[in-house]
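I have been asked to look over a protein record a colleague put together. What it holds is a sequence and that sequence's fold in token form. Please read both lines and tell me whether the tokens look consistent with the sequence. I do not need a full report, just your reasoning and any doubts. This is what I was given:
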Amino acid sequence: MQLLEKFIQIADAPYAYAKKLTGDSRGPLIGYFCSYAPEEIICAAGAVPFRLFGTRGDISLADAHLQSYCCSLVRGGLEDALNGSLSFLDGTVFPHTCDSIQRLSDIWRLNAGFSFHADIVLPVKLDAPSARAYMEAVLRDFRDELATALNSPITDEDLAGAVAVVNQIRKHLGDLYAARSRKPGLISAGDLYKVTKAAMVMDRKEAAAALGFLAGELLSNESVKQKPTAGNGKRVILSGGICNHPDIYSLMEAAGADVVWDDLCTGTRYAEGLVRETGDPIAAIAERYAERMVCPAKHSDNTARGRNLVELVRAHSAAGVIFLFLKFCDPHAFDYPYLKHFLDEAGIPSMVLEMEERLPPEGQMKTRIESFVEMI
């Protein structure tokens, strides 16, 4: 399918796509590392939000600034900033997430040399009475800061248009995920990951239109819509914070597992929840952030993530959960025992795969996955 191949090519070579955007004068490119970066505000300023996934190359320059126990996302992102691979960026946005990303922001500001740099310190405790008002205030400040930096006033009408476009992307991705859960053979898990990854770097209007065509084409051929059906393997869900992960999906398919859903930063968590398209757009963006399922960087209540993971397993008739963690990702590592406790109480098997952007020997990884699949 030609359109699917386009998404795959962009996901495999996002920097080449970004350079094409700059050549086409699509507007400034603003890099970001986290799904808490407000894409709608960036789009409303006439810019393109560009998700940063780390590097596929060797890391050497970043080692002068970061300890070796920082995760490969942080070290790889800085490496590409220092070696010029990200020269197409006009600036970078750093939401308040983990300690490593916060320190990366300081190092980036002093050494990367981009013209625009913003820290968005959103509240961590989202169930506090003042959290919503504080979040709105932070987003309004960012709106003003970005408009001044890009010399591009951001009106409520601009924001409303951007919200509608980004909502289309989320809706189409949600439709594709739901369709794959119903019928895993419709699109491979690896291809769906690449479609999602590409959507995070593409011009958002282009992405919304292309996703609409792709979803329409795939769903028009779908024959099973009512309930989950068995694929060729055992149904599993992925959970964690992996961003630029290697091709784990082909190994899972070879081991007899069908990835029917995920709870990943660069998966369904990116697309979860639509922004209300009525009223104050800034308040609506804050509302989505406050109400969607949190990651370990935020807190809503003591059991929300555990209950949500169990509910996902049941909703998608999965037989088990595979946790994918970047090595040295403390927030997700700290969260794991609590999540495993919920799965154990519900009788749901799980396993952990800790990795960097390069997989350990394929045979070793495949054996571990095969053992888990046989057990479930």
In short: Residues 223-230 have pLDDT under 50 and may be disordered. Residues 255 and 369 are 6 Å apart (CA to CA).
